[in-house]
Each structure stands twice: as C-alpha cells, then as structure tokens.
Amino acid sequence: MELELETPYMLARVENGIGWMTFNNPERRNAMKMEMNAAIVTILEAFEASDDVRVVVMAGAGDKAFVSGADISEFETHRSTPEGRERFDAVAASAGRAFAKLQKPLVAMIRGFCMGGGLATALQADIRISADDGQFGVPAARLGLGYGFEGINKLTHIVGPAMAAEIFLTARRFSAAEAFHMGLVNRVVTVEELESIVTELAATIAANAPLTVRAAKAGVKETFKDPGRRDLERVAGMVEECFLSRDYQEGRTAFMEKRTPDFQGR
Length: 266
Hints:
Strands 1-2-3-5-7-10 form a 6-stranded mixed β-sheet, with helices on both faces. A 4-stranded mixed β-sheet has the order 4-6-8-9. It is built from 12 helices and 10 strands. It has helices spanning about 35-50, 75-80, 80-100, 115-120, 140-145, 150-160, 160-170, 175-180, 190-205, 210-220, 230-245, 245-255, and strands at about 10-15, 20-25, 55-60, 65, 105-110, 115, 125-130, 135, 175, 185-190.
C-alpha cells in the first residue's frame, strides 16, 4: 500500500508490517526541501495511526545519499529574512514533533551522505544501520550557521561530549567505520547487504509484542531528558499495560507450546 502525498519528493508505503518512508530527491542527494518536512508529518501520523504498521524504516532514494542536508538552493527563498526563517523553522519543528510523537520503532537505513540536517534526521531513529559507503558530519561551522542546543544535546547523548565536540568544531566528514566506532550507528554492512539486513531487522521487531516494544522505546527516550523532567510514571504505566495484555498471555502460552507467538498489540 502506498500513501498519496502532495509532494513527489517523499515516498511512503506499507509492506509486511513495515512502513517505508523514502526521501526522494536523488538529483540533489536527497537534500531536504521545506515541502519534504511537511510531508514527514503526514507520513508519520499515518504510520502511527495504522495497525498495519509496527515498525518504520526511513531511507534515501538512489545510491548517493540518505539525506545530504538542507537544500541550500532554497535558502534565498525561505531563509534569507527573519519572516522566511520563521516559516522554515516552523515547518521543520512540526516534522521534529512528528518524530517525537512516533511511538513505533524507527530504523534509519543509511548509505552515502548523511550530513547536517540529514544527520539530525538520522538521529531521530532508534536504530541506525549504515552501508560501508556512509559519510557523516555537521558542516554548520563551514557555512556560518548556528546550531541549536537540542541537536547538540542529542548527538552528545549518543556519542559523548568529546566526539560531539570534534564533529561540530571540525565540520569534517566521518566514515561509516568512524561512525560505528563512536556509537553513532549500530552496525555497518556492505552496500549489497544493506536493504536485506534492514528488512530482516525490521521484520524481527515487527514480530515482537507491540506493547512491549513501545514501552521499551519510551523508556529509552526518557534517558535523553534531565532526570527531573523524566516521565517515569508514564513509562511504568506502559510496562504495567504489557503485563495486563493478552499478548503477555500469548507470549507465555507460545513459549510453553514451543511455537511462534502471534502478538496483536493488545
């Protein structure tokens, strides 16, 4: 099933429990246009609401990039005045909120360039799998752009302050091997293996108990917050919901009967 969108620069389909979201601007190495951020909201809200989607995978079209960053050709139109920047930032913020509201697991399938805004997009994922041709970096210091605290904080949480400082201060490109070494990506595989390995990973997640997966994701996300701002009561409630679910009974029964459980998310 494919979703109908208002822009050709984003694609979305649902297949075997996996919602695929594709950044479709390969001529510009999938550089992010403002309309692409708007479409992200539509796609993720549809995936979140659909019982047919248990896990989401995002990827870039073509073989050159996941997302190479913001489409600089739009800066004169959308980011050259305070009013334009305000509109641009509002659309980007709405995409960020859509990512934040997504309770289903999100996997980034990365090959080629994953730079600037592309890296920020990849950081929205719970799991990042990179092909061995992946290239990562934040070139803001070479463009004179200011980089907000929220993005710096998220990257620092994942790779640590020393590596975050090197990424931001040098503005250089890092290889997939370097990204793996610093913990930026979970795994590096060959280009030929990438799609099959990501599909297998997503299928494994999709087959697990949805309520348990959702509670685990929520728990991990709370670790990004300052201790005083963590909503541990909400996470505890989600854990209790797992124990009260039919899926918990199904999991125990399937284990005793030595069969694959059929989880329904309730």
